[in-house]
Design goal:
The chain is of the alpha+beta class. The protein has 3 domains: about 260 residues, no CATH class; about 90 residues, no CATH class; about 70 residues, no CATH class. The protein contains 19 helices and 12 strands. β5 and β6 form a beta hairpin.
């Protein structure tokens, strides 16, 4: 029998106590329709704004086969992915490593088939819907408004153990939109009282709370949340992406969410002013004294590995450097860096050193042999000295630097990278139950992520991969 997690009654936190954050652009724009249910033909909405005296626009277009535009519970999962991305150190790849079970648990939803289906449908909508923010996306680093086009989720890699539907064993690798990733890594964030969000009973209330809370922050003064908002009712209905825009129906559709937020103390009052055509909705907040400062976003962004940084230092652009390390592995790239360095130190004149380095890394034909150079290069450059072997001390120092960088990652990211390395070498030798058992052992602290990460690499260099895989199968089977 599925155990349902009851929503607890908690008060909103003081802003100075909040330690979770959400990406500020997507929160402020309200990318998710607050309605819990919509007709399947609700596949597009367009919102026009005036930002700093300039015309701005936000558009969403979503395929009907996914159930229309993102709405309802989709907002819970979209927010949670941003939170998890931050918890995992906001890696440059934009990837979140998680499981379907973990997403439901962190969102406070039951571990049931209905919610696994809702999660799968939500992720499909978040990937399928295309947003265009015209002059309405804040480039906080340059203090200007820009235009971006994106899908909240760029890619979903899921392993459902042979099934087409999500379940308790489903593992997920989700890559978030580049504009969102860039904003988060540049710390354009707003505080998020995640405990309070999860305690709210209805998805409509949670969605409206996130919209209201985001509107309290002025992009120019993010540390000064407003204690009152005064908004044109019809404009507010459009920003909430409500289908109904008749004032009486807007009031009725939002009434339940208003009531819950009033009862919980987040709102002190909700009033309406003006005539039918010019109705204003006035929110007064009751969750904090106006003198309480909002917290600074103290987050740790995962640094690139030392190998990636070395490629960048030698002129390889960041995306290419990351792709090379991801595709060929840190050990391979490190060896090829040594070959490149030895060639340059030996006097080889490259017309384009960066292009040469990339070619050396990609070489699969033995053009750049180690430790000595190929005969063709020796003919072209007869005076090149033999490539010096790295000293034991140099090798040990590099190994220590890489280990220290790995240890600096959050535990969840360490686990994800360790399992990814295992899959790279012996993935075909393991069933999903073995991978899930590894993940659980890592998360429980029963297995050291660095030892696993380095162990499989060492086994590959010593030609012991079959024995390594057999040991994993014997020790970690979660079927």
């Amino acid at each position: 029998m599925t155990k349902v997690r009851r929503k607890s009654t908690v008060a909103p936190q003081l802003f100075s106590e909040i330690d979770r954050f959400d990406e500020a652009n997507s929160a402020r724009l309200g990318l998710i329709c607050v309605q819990e249910r919509i007709p399947e033909d609700y596949t597009r909405w367009d919102i026009e704004y005036n930002i700093d005296g300039r015309d701005a626009k936000l558009t969403c277009i979503s395929p009907s086969e996914y159930g229309g535009v993102p709405h309802g519970l989709d907002g819970d999962f979209a927010t949670l992915l941003n939170v998890l991305y931050l918890e995992q150190g906001a890696p440059e790849s934009g990837e979140v490593h998680t499981t379907a079970y973990q997403l439901l648990q962190k969102a406070g939803f039951p571990d049931s088939g209905q919610y696994y289906q809702s999660l799968q449908e939500a992720l499909d909508r978040l990937k399928g819907a295309t947003y265009t923010a015209s002059e309405s996306w804040r480039d906080n680093k340059r203090k200007r408004w820009t235009t971006v086009k994106f899908n909240i989720i760029e890619q979903i890699d899921s392993d459902t153990e042979g099934s087409t539907g999500f379940g308790v064993g489903t593992t997920l690798k989700i890559r978030l939109a580049r504009p969102v990733v860039q904003s988060i890594r540049e710390r354009y964030l707003k505080p998020l009282d995640m405990t309070f969000v999860m305690s709210l009973k209805r998805s409509l209330t949670r969605s409206l709370y996130r919209m209201l809370d985001a509107h309290r922050y002025d992009p120019a003064t993010p540390q000064e949340p407003a204690d009152m908002l005064r908004l044109p009712l019809l404009q507010w209905a459009r920003e909430c992406k409500l289908l109904e825009t008749v004032p009486a129906r807007v009031k009725r559709n939002l009434e339940g969410a208003h009531t819950e937020l009033l009862e919980r103390g987040y709102l002190r009052s909700v009033t309406y002013e003006g005539s039918r055509a010019t109705t204003m909705i006035v929110y007064e907040f009751g969750d904090l004294p106006t003198t309480t400062p909002a917290p600074e976003p103290m987050i740790e962004v995962v640094p690139d590995s030392p190998v990636t940084e070395e490629l960048r230092r030698r002129g390889v652009v960041h995306p290419v450097a990351r792709k090379l390390v991801a595709e060929y592995g840190e050990n391979h790239v490190t060896v090829r860096l040594e070959i490149f360095a030895a060639m340059i130190a030996g006097g080889y004149k490259a017309r384009n050193p960066t292009a040469l380095l990339v070619d050396i890394i990609k070489d699969q034909e033995g053009k750049y042999a180690a430790p000595a150079l190929s005969p063709a290069l020796e003919v072209a450059r007869p005076r090149v000295k033999p490539r010096p072997e790295p000293s034991e001390e140099d090798s040990r120092t590099l190994s220590q630097q890489m280990d220290a960088a790995f240890r600096a990652l959050p535990p969840s990211e360490q686990a994800a990278r360790a399992v990814a390395n295992v899959k790279r070498f012996v993935g075909k030798e393991l069933r999903e139950g073995h991978v899930r058992g590894l993940l659980r052992a890592l998360q429980a602290g029963e297995l050291d992520a660095l030892e696993l990460h380095n162990g499989v690499t060492r086994a590959a260099s010593e030609l012991r991969l079959p024995e390594f895989a057999e040991a994993l199968r014997a020790a970690y089977d979660d079927t």
